[in-house]
Amino acid sequence: MTNGSKNYKPTGFPDPLCSEETKRSSGYGLQFAKAVMNQWGGHQDSSSLYTKRYKKFEKDRKYATGNQDTTIYRQLLNSSDPNNGDGSMLNLDFTPVPILPKFVRIVVNKILSQSPYPNLEAVDPLSSSEKDQEKRKTEMLVKTKKQLQKVKEKTGVEIGGKVEDIPETLEEAEIFIGSNIKSSSEIAAQIATNLTLTWSDFNDQIFRRNVNDMATVGMAVVKRDNDPNYGIRPRYVDPVNFVHSFTEDPNFSDLTYAGEIRVITIQELKRLAGDQFTEEQYKEIATNARTKFNNDAAKLHQTQFDRNSNRNIYGYDEFSIEVLDFEFVSVDTMIFEDKENRYGNKNFFYKGYDYKKPENSVFSREVSKMNNEVVYGGVYIVGTDFMFNYGKKTNIPKNIYDISKAKMSYSVTATNLSEMMPKSMVDSCIGFADQLQITHLKIQQAVAKAKPDGIIIDIEGLENVQLGKGGDLQPLELHDIYEQTGVFYYRSKNPEGGFQNPPIREINNSIRNINEMIALYNHYLGLIRDTTGINEAMDGSSPKGDQLVGVRQQAISAGNNAIYDITNSAMLLYKYVCSDVVKCLQILPPNSAIYKMYENAIGEENVKVLTSFSNLYMYNFGVTVVKDMEEIEKQYLEQNIQVALSQKELDIEDAIAIRQLKDVNQAERLLIVRRKKRIAMNQQIAQQNSQMQAQVQQQSAMAASQAAQQEMQMKAQIDAQMKQMEHQMEMERMQLEYSLKKEIEMIRASSTVGMKMNEQEFKKQIETEKDDRKDERVKKQAVEQSKLISQRDGNRGELKGSAEATEQQVNPEEMINQIIGQ
Question: pTM score, two decimals?
């Protein structure tokens, strides 16, 4: 949309009570934009509020990064001309000491380390009833858990979900409902909001810069853009360029207008405005800016034709211009009429904004008015009468329970806002940082002026000193001997005959006032710590062994309290952005490309639930920012967990479930519930063990008694069996003995008879043998005698058989033995 007449001369802000048609005109928007610029000024006005804030913020940022201007330090250390250069004869390093950057990083990293994320909870009556139904369902499952467990064991069917996930007690169920149970609308809103923040890289880039701005300049700004190509996109806004209506509220909840002053090129302007301006108007804009922002005025009339793009390229496309992207809240009065028809029925009609009740009407009419807040906005080219994209904003997020209220697209928070100027942590420490830097330079100056150790030489004491035949030595010669050998020679008496001191004495030089300078440096460093609240325990510069645990925890708590305003403002900004995003998600047009994009990302049903505005079931979401526990809270919780684990009042699974909760209150409640549950379980187990032990003891006693009885019975049986066996063995022994005796007697009788017979036969045989032997001897003797006689007389031959008889000589004893053996 272009501007209205060039002769339009606005003075101040336009009438906020005029008609909607007037507010929609470009002249109204142009007057409003010029009034904003008149109130704030711009880059070119050195005395404007915009320039003052710009200079203040730039100064704070330079100190926060350690790049502040060192001119003031050079002037203070100048010895000849304090107003023109440093004039110092010393070679000093004026690089600022990076103290404030350290404290800024500590604050920013501490806030970001808590990993905030949005937790959306529907607070409308419809969602509350859904939550109540879910709560009653969970309570019923808790009460019937044992029966459900039995059903699962018998049939294998799980009713109402996994039985293991059902809480044991109603107290545990309450924690479970508060942390895990969400309605379908809450789930859809949670997923869509997280997805939107992820697409815009909010946590890693935008929010980090916001927190840094909060610590550095004391203000942070985020704008929500409803881009037709990129969807709902939070965008970082530099607080230096942010302009707004007068307010004393650090949360900027009462703003009537807000805007952003940006410097862009005419080439970028053509991309944004397109054919809303003609080329002659673009040239007129360039003519107005040719002497600003270091633009090259010679390029104003340069033109060349680009054959590749088939268009003219103008030299003034490179010119920088200043634009104001603004929006304001206005109230449009909507008129409704309650009219009676000819049949006596009444109907309610919408009549617009300029309706007037007719006079002398036949039918009764009653006019009703409703004030509806709307948002207008556009982009104004500063210093001209041109403006584009002006009109009533669409897709404005509203609360279904208060649709008369509208919110602009800016989310802003600040700390210590006073007279439109925020007071930041860095700004509070600038004076101390300057003094600390000067002290650092003074230490350098003292070190540079320090002299080396020297000696004092009394020349008169070294005169007329004789060493051998060489004559008198000169003082310089004696000094050389002293430097080379460490021995010096002098005359102890002066010419008057009096004694004099040694002529060479050492001068021990030290850095002047160095200890006082170091103490002063630590003093200003302590003032910076006191101002920011970041002590040694909080930044970790104090070793753990130097302080007790309780003292360190108190110091960390004091530091957290000191930076609470920054932390709270950052969390409020996060909450405002998420609340703005979820309200925009609820009014997505069903036929838009963005609707289709979210439908593909989070599912068709989730988007339908979230955007059910047409049925007037739009959910009213309350956004809370959940963050990780503080380090002290984690340590305290972990200490309680370890104590409970050591006393076997918790399981490892319980400890893991407690550590996963980010809210310390929920974690402590779950710790109490699980601890009570474990103690009751331990008592039940102990009772069961005692019962089992009693049963075991009783069974042991019964078993012992039975064993004793069985032992007695077995002993009796064994005794009886032993006696029976002994009787049997005795009988068998007696029978055996009888049979043996019988056999022995029979053997004895038979042997007696046999022996007698043998004896008789033996005697008979012996007698026979004796007779036979006697005969043999007789024969042998006769043979021998015959042999002897025959041999002597030679008259008679040998007897027959005498040779065999001689050779077969028999031993009588062997013959007896053979007979006995037979």
Answer: 0.68
